[in-house]
């Protein structure tokens, strides 16, 4: 079973093509590992639709964030504490929110 979104992989490759070496510090996480690293219980990493990455030239991180949004990542953000990595989401944010609500509230699909 493939646990990573194919769109995420393709978008990460585009980032690599543009910025050279990127390091993925987190992508798909099991629920156990997510708890160990202090991830939130509904983390996008659990669904294989998010990645945390660093780029070789940290001075280009803001440019990388802007490029990530341009090529189709959603939920792009810099880490609040160190400004050294990007968190990027490959699924449309609206769809993720609806998916999360359906799971959280156990609402039957329409």
Q: In words, what does this structure look like?
A:
The structure is a single chain. The model has no long low-confidence stretch (mean pLDDT 81). The protein is globular, with a radius of gyration of 14 Å. It has helices at 6-19, 31-36, 61-71, 93-105, and strands at residues 22-26, 50-55, 74-78, 86-89. The chain has 110 residues and is of the alpha+beta class. Helix content is 40%, strand content 18%.
Notable traits:
alpha+beta, 110 residues, four-stranded antiparallel sheet
Write a brief structural summary.
The chain is α+β, with helices and mostly antiparallel strands and 110 residues long. It is 40% helix and 18% strand.
The helix/strand class is alpha+beta
Mean pLDDT: 81
- Ends distance: 27 Å
Please estimate the helix content: 40-55%
Contiguous low-pLDDT stretches (5 residues minimum) are: none
According to DSSP, the number of beta strands is: 4
Computed Rg: 14 Å
Order of secondary-structure elements: HEHEHEEH
Number of helices: 4
Main sheet characteristics: 4 strands, antiparallel
Quaternary state reads: single chain
Bulk shape: globular
The percent range for strand residues is 15-25%
Q: Give, in spatial order, the strands making up the sheet with the most strands.
A: 1-2-4-3
